[in-house]
Design goal:
Helix content is 76%, strand content 3%. The protein has 5 helices and 2 strands, in the order ααααββα. β1 and β2 form a beta hairpin.
Length: 255
């Protein structure tokens, strides 16, 4: 009987684990497809802007679309990170989803969105290259001074994805600060998020400086790309750990 009991207990744990994994996958896919709809509109608008601006501003040249969309993607990911608590936390937990599954689903969904944005941008850049082969249009393949690398695809793709995900984490940190602690906590979370993205930008904004409020400028050191990638991954782990701690037992606001 004890052996049978042990098997039953083990089977119960296995079923529970599979149920949790299935729930997290459903949340991940739901968030991914919801936010990816926004992302498709976002990429389309930025793509049109990238084609139009050089025609009206003579001192602006065509640049690689991955490089062009880099800065807008950070803002986009910051915004959906801010929406993550106010738009989704109460909805999922209020419908019986655990905070853990919400957390996992949000992380995986955001990672899929930023990778999706970079993938679409890469395809669009490839289309521009094909157009340049049969017309007089000459698309630029240079990434300028954003990364200072000779790699045209892989390194920018990875770097931009990591940076975009870091901005999502910063937005998520802001939203959970306001959601859980109100105005004072939100203000502290904004300051924390500014410091957080400042640290992540050190390796990617090569040869530039951070600007706050239009008049505060902090020069950034010229760090190597491998160091920037490792630093960003570490900061992502730390940021997600903090958010997990803050969301683990956060009271849900019923609208």
């Amino acid at each position: 009987m004890s052996g049978i009991s042990g098997v039953n207990r083990g089977s119960g744990r296995e079923v529970g684990f599979l149920k949790d994994a299935s729930t997290a996958v459903k949340v991940s896919s739901d968030l991914f497809f919801t936010q990816m709809k926004w992302a498709i509109w976002f990429v389309g608008i930025v793509f049109v802007v990238s084609l139009v601006i050089p025609r009206f501003v003579t001192d602006v040249d065509h640049i690689h679309f991955l490089a062009f969309i880099f800065q807008p993607t950070k803002i986009f990911m910051l915004v959906i990170g801010i929406l993550s608590c106010f738009a989704f936390l109460g909805y999922y937990v209020g419908n019986g989803i655990t905070r853990k599954d919400y957390f996992i689903g949000t992380v995986v969904g955001a990672g899929g969105v930023v990778i999706g944005i970079m993938a679409i941008a890469s395809v669009l850049q490839g289309v521009l290259l094909l157009v340049g082969m049969v017309t007089t249009y000459v698309p630029n393949t240079s990434h300028g001074d954003v990364l200072g690398t000779e790699s045209v695809w892989l390194v920018p793709f990875v770097g931009y994805s990591l940076s975009g995900l870091a901005y999502f984490v910063a937005g998520w940190l802001i939203s959970i600060g306001f959601y859980r602690y109100g105005g004072i906590g939100g203000a502290i979370s904004i300051i924390s998020a500014i410091i957080y993205v400042g640290l992540t930008d050190m390796g990617w904004e090569r040869g530039s400086s951070l600007q706050f409020f239009g008049f505060i400028q902090i020069p950034l050191p010229d760090l190597s790309l491998p160091f920037a990638m490792v630093t960003t991954v570490v900061l992502l782990v730390v940021g997600l750990w903090v958010i997990r701690r803050l969301t683990k037992r956060v009271p849900i606001k019923i609208e």
